[in-house]
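Progress report, Aim 2. The chain analyzed during this reporting quarter is listed below.
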Amino acid sequence: MADPFPYVLNVVSADADALAGPLRAAAAGHGAAGEIDWLSPDRAFDLPFLDQPEAVLAAARAAAAGTQADINAVPAANRRKTLLIADMESTIIDCECIDELADFAGLKDKIAPITERTMRGEIDFKAALRERMALLKGLPTSALEQVYAERVHLNPGARELVATMKAHGAFTMLVSGGFGFFAERVAQDCGFDTWQANKLEIVDGKLTGEVGEPILDRAAKLRALEQAVREHGLSHEDTAAIGDGANDLAMIERAGLGVGYYPKPVLAAAALAIIAHTDLRTLLYLQGYRDTEIVR
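Predicted structure tokens for the chain:
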């Protein structure tokens, strides 16, 4: 029998208890709505509803205006994904590693604006990466170690996200337009099954200012998703992708559940769901996981 409510309004907020009534009324104003289903007491709930997902979502977000709430509408079918592909910088970790390396070279004021424009999709990723790396020529590799030790931190909920999806049979991939030096360590720390990233060219313990080819860009992230779908015998509806910038756009659009994490505007416009107030555990709630199922 078909699910009587083909859509779910998913709400995650410190104000979730106060929002439950108004948001159910907002959804019911556009057709039949089910009962509140709490995934996390006073923090996250599902509200099943009948149709008009765009109208219901707009009404719910309007009703919650002024609160710190992540409110998204997703299909009720096939919610739990069996492939996770995640961006690294400003998604799984809390910084842009190239900007932190630039700080060691006294060039952050010059390099960080290029990074920001790249993430917003205003300039070509490959060209911008080559430009920034050329400025870092001669930086000792000890700076890489120091950046990782002192400035790279997992975002809240990262370990829980990866561990929970793996515990329920998902394959997890970290795919970064950043550098393998950092991606390998972050993937191990967070528990990802595999990782892909760009290669820094190093000679005599110093950066040469060049990046190994081919450069992993937006198209390469999409190819990584497509290859994983084929290798694991999945459909695109079985996949979740999460990122924050323009380089993540193609994989976000192709995934069954494409999520923007504190996204730049170009990505926010394309993502099925947006996390802009809460942490990475929200990607679990979006899939219908309950607190009792989250691996901590």
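The longest helix spans residues 218-231. The mean pLDDT is 95. These observations will guide the mutagenesis work planned for the next reporting period.
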